[in-house]
Design a protein that fits this description.
The chain is about 35% helix and about 20% strand. About 45% of the residues are buried.
């Protein structure tokens, strides 16, 4: 098996075995959310510069440890020497079963305290059973990350230090608003203020994305989409949310959409609200249902890097397809295309991790913006004036498989 050495500043989607090249640290934190890793790296740096003596910290993205060989090496080089391990799993143990099992095994063998935390705001009893620290400790760690933001990131680090008997003051998690309006380089937070930025008689295009992007300042792709929608003749309505499954967040979203009903929705959150094969669950996107709810276009913030996507022949990774194509279809969303990929912003030497950001691809942002404008126009076109076209996928050798296809958003081949 070929093993790659991770290059500082490089982005890897986990499809190949890699050596992250980290040295051991007192605390190891693993997460699939680069926004979370960025927030903790920034907090560690700020506290260190402020003279706060913290245990050493290692941060790693689980997506870079998708290959079993990568897991084995990381466990041997980093995990086995840690004093505390915290693993936040989006989607539960099943999305990283081998890694979870191997990390748990070495922690049990070496008597290292370990906390498994849900990657969203929903409890997970299976992760609770894998955790060795007390339920109160586990819940406090989880709540710091659920609420997020710079203050909670700092308190998370102080609290983990206290678990290692460091004499340090810490505060309980601070609740933050779970959903709201975002606008580039502005403190706009009401529909009334946002409408002052809009142009008259334009359709409204909502853009829904995770709150974590705002908390980590990782909004370059959102800013690009807002500009693209404006260029396409639409009034952008950017809305961040903790989760489409969180009642408080969806309640705020409902209020926003009632005040400014969108004509088309671009959704950048992953997974689905409804379960496959079960009864459909309502979402905030059902505004206007009964009189024709707006189409929901699924936009993809890819977890991979652009060059690998362009050089490859398989399109998006299996993880991207699962989170952003297959599951969103359960809610009735329509795939558009990937509008951004991950690019490295800098190497953080203190935590030995790469700080990455979503980098928009301008021509793909423009395509999706024009697509949204077309759907908005179609929504206001009388039915008698609409033209219907049915496009079916087919395999060249079996007509019986007509229509049995899934779009993978593959790059253009030259």
């Amino acid at each position: 098996m070929h093993l790659l050495a991770a290059q500082p500043g490089g982005i890897n989607d986990g499809s190949e075995a890699v050596d992250l090249g980290q040295t051991p640290g007192d605390i190891v934190f693993l997460s699939a959310a680069d926004t979370e890793l960025t927030a903790l790296a920034d907090a560690q740096s700020e506290l260190n510069q402020g003279g706060v003596d913290l245990p050493t910290l290692r941060l790693a993205n689980i997506m870079h440890l998708a290959h079993n060989m990568s897991v084995d090496l990381y466990v041997d080089q980093v995990i086995k020497s840690a004093k505390l391990v915290v693993v936040r799993l989006l989607g539960g143990r099943g999305y990283w079963s081998y890694g979870a099992d191997e990390v748990l095994a070495i922690c049990q063998k070496n008597k290292i305290p370990i906390a498994f935390l849900p990657g969203d705001d929903q409890p997970d009893t299976e992760l609770d059973e894998l955790t060795s620290i007390s339920p109160n400790m586990q819940n406090r760690l989880w709540q710091y990350l659920v609420h997020g933001g710079p203050i909670n990131a700092s308190e998370f680090l102080k609290y983990t230090a206290s678990l290692l008997d460091v004499n340090i003051d810490w505060q309980e998690p601070t609740p933050l608003v779970k959903a709201g309006i975002y606008w580039p380089n502005s403190a706009i937070d009401t529909v009334a203020d946002l409408q002052k930025q809009w142009k008259l008689d334009r359709p409204i295009a909502a853009v829904v994305f995770y709150r974590a992007l705002v908390q980590a300042g990782n909004t370059k792709v959102i800013d690009a989409i807002v500009a693209g929608l404006d260029d396409a003749g639409l009034n952008p309505l950017p809305v961040f949310t903790q989760s489409l499954k969180d009642q408080e967040a969806t309640g705020i979203m409902n209020q926003i959409f009632q005040a400014a009903p969108p004509d088309v929705i671009l959704n950048g959150t992953g997974f689905s609200v409804s379960a496959p094969g079960a009864a459909r669950v309502q979402t905030p996107f059902d505004v206007g249902r009964g009189e024709g709810a707006p189409v929901v276009l699924q936009i993809v913030f890819s977890g991979g890097n652009e060059q690998s996507w362009r050089d490859g022949l398989s399109g998006l990774s299996a993880r991207d397809i699962s989170m952003n194509v297959a599951l969103p279809e359960v809610d009735g969303r329509v795939l558009s295309r990937a509008v951004s990929f991950k690019g490295s912003a800098r190497r953080d030497d203190l935590t030995e991790t790469d700080i990455v950001r979503y980098e928009p691809v301008q021509d793909r942002v423009a395509f999706v913006s024009e697509l949204a404008a077309n759907w908005a126009r179609l929504r206001h076109t009388p039915e008698k004036d609409r033209r219907i076209a049915l496009v079916m996928a087919n395999y060249p050798n079996k007509d019986g498989r007509m229509g049995n296809g899934v779009g993978l958003d593959t790059p253009p081949q030259h």
